[in-house]
Amino acid sequence: MDEVFRALADPTRRRLLDLLHADPGATLQELCEPLDISRQAVSKHLALLEAAGLVVCRWAGREKHHHLNPVPLVEIHERWISKHTDAKARRLLELRRVLEEKES
To answer: 3-state class of 10 per DSSP?
Structure first.
Protein backbone atom coordinates (compact mmCIF):
# COMPACT_ATOMS: atom_id res chain seq x y z
CA MET A 1 0.00 0.00 0.00
CA ASP A 2 2.98 2.33 0.55
CA GLU A 3 3.83 2.08 -3.15
CA VAL A 4 0.29 3.12 -4.05
CA PHE A 5 0.46 6.20 -1.80
CA ARG A 6 3.89 7.12 -3.20
CA ALA A 7 2.53 6.78 -6.73
CA LEU A 8 -0.51 8.92 -5.94
CA ALA A 9 1.64 11.63 -4.33
CA ASP A 10 2.78 12.95 -7.71
CA PRO A 11 0.40 15.19 -9.70
CA THR A 12 1.68 13.92 -13.05
CA ARG A 13 0.95 10.32 -12.08
CA ARG A 14 -2.53 11.29 -10.88
CA ARG A 15 -3.07 13.03 -14.24
CA LEU A 16 -1.98 9.85 -16.04
CA LEU A 17 -4.53 7.86 -14.03
CA ASP A 18 -7.21 10.39 -15.00
CA LEU A 19 -6.21 10.04 -18.64
CA LEU A 20 -6.37 6.24 -18.44
CA HIS A 21 -9.77 6.44 -16.80
CA ALA A 22 -11.01 8.57 -19.70
CA ASP A 23 -9.19 6.56 -22.39
CA PRO A 24 -8.65 2.92 -21.36
CA GLY A 25 -5.98 1.19 -23.38
CA ALA A 26 -4.07 4.35 -24.29
CA THR A 27 -0.59 3.94 -25.72
CA LEU A 28 2.49 5.82 -24.52
CA GLN A 29 2.21 8.19 -27.47
CA GLU A 30 -1.44 8.94 -26.69
CA LEU A 31 -0.60 9.59 -23.04
CA CYS A 32 2.26 11.95 -23.95
CA GLU A 33 0.10 14.24 -26.09
CA PRO A 34 -1.77 16.11 -23.30
CA LEU A 35 1.28 16.29 -21.01
CA ASP A 36 4.07 18.83 -21.26
CA ILE A 37 6.87 16.39 -20.38
CA SER A 38 9.15 14.10 -22.34
CA ARG A 39 8.23 10.63 -23.52
CA GLN A 40 10.92 9.20 -21.22
CA ALA A 41 9.44 10.99 -18.20
CA VAL A 42 5.96 9.65 -18.99
CA SER A 43 7.44 6.19 -19.38
CA LYS A 44 9.10 6.41 -15.95
CA HIS A 45 5.85 7.58 -14.34
CA LEU A 46 3.97 4.69 -15.98
CA ALA A 47 6.59 2.21 -14.71
CA LEU A 48 6.07 3.46 -11.17
CA LEU A 49 2.29 3.22 -11.55
CA GLU A 50 2.71 -0.32 -12.88
CA ALA A 51 4.94 -1.28 -9.94
CA ALA A 52 2.27 0.02 -7.56
CA GLY A 53 -0.37 -2.06 -9.34
CA LEU A 54 -2.36 0.97 -10.47
CA VAL A 55 -1.71 0.36 -14.16
CA VAL A 56 -1.75 -2.90 -16.08
CA CYS A 57 -0.55 -3.32 -19.63
CA ARG A 58 -1.51 -5.43 -22.60
CA TRP A 59 0.57 -5.82 -25.71
CA ALA A 60 -1.08 -5.72 -29.13
CA GLY A 61 1.64 -6.37 -31.64
CA ARG A 62 4.27 -3.72 -31.04
CA GLU A 63 1.96 -1.41 -29.10
CA LYS A 64 1.68 -1.44 -25.32
CA HIS A 65 -1.79 -0.49 -24.13
CA HIS A 66 -2.16 0.86 -20.59
CA HIS A 67 -5.22 0.34 -18.40
CA LEU A 68 -6.17 1.72 -15.02
CA ASN A 69 -6.40 -0.98 -12.35
CA PRO A 70 -8.83 0.34 -9.70
CA VAL A 71 -8.29 -2.51 -7.21
CA PRO A 72 -5.58 -0.77 -5.13
CA LEU A 73 -7.77 2.34 -4.96
CA VAL A 74 -10.73 0.29 -3.75
CA GLU A 75 -8.49 -1.30 -1.10
CA ILE A 76 -7.46 2.16 0.12
CA HIS A 77 -11.09 3.23 0.14
CA GLU A 78 -12.15 0.23 2.18
CA ARG A 79 -9.30 0.53 4.66
CA TRP A 80 -9.06 4.30 5.14
CA ILE A 81 -11.88 6.26 3.56
CA SER A 82 -15.10 4.30 4.05
CA LYS A 83 -14.68 4.47 7.84
CA HIS A 84 -14.99 8.23 7.66
CA THR A 85 -17.86 8.64 5.25
CA ASP A 86 -20.53 8.70 7.89
CA ALA A 87 -23.06 11.51 8.17
CA LYS A 88 -21.05 13.38 10.82
CA ALA A 89 -17.98 13.60 8.58
CA ARG A 90 -20.10 14.74 5.63
CA ARG A 91 -21.64 17.52 7.76
CA LEU A 92 -18.16 18.70 8.80
CA LEU A 93 -17.08 18.77 5.17
CA GLU A 94 -20.16 20.79 4.24
CA LEU A 95 -19.44 23.22 7.08
CA ARG A 96 -15.87 23.67 5.82
CA ARG A 97 -17.15 24.37 2.30
CA VAL A 98 -19.61 26.99 3.60
CA LEU A 99 -16.88 28.69 5.66
CA GLU A 100 -14.50 28.71 2.68
CA GLU A 101 -17.19 30.29 0.49
CA LYS A 102 -17.74 33.05 3.07
CA GLU A 103 -14.01 33.78 3.11
CA SER A 104 -13.94 34.20 -0.67
So the answer is: coil
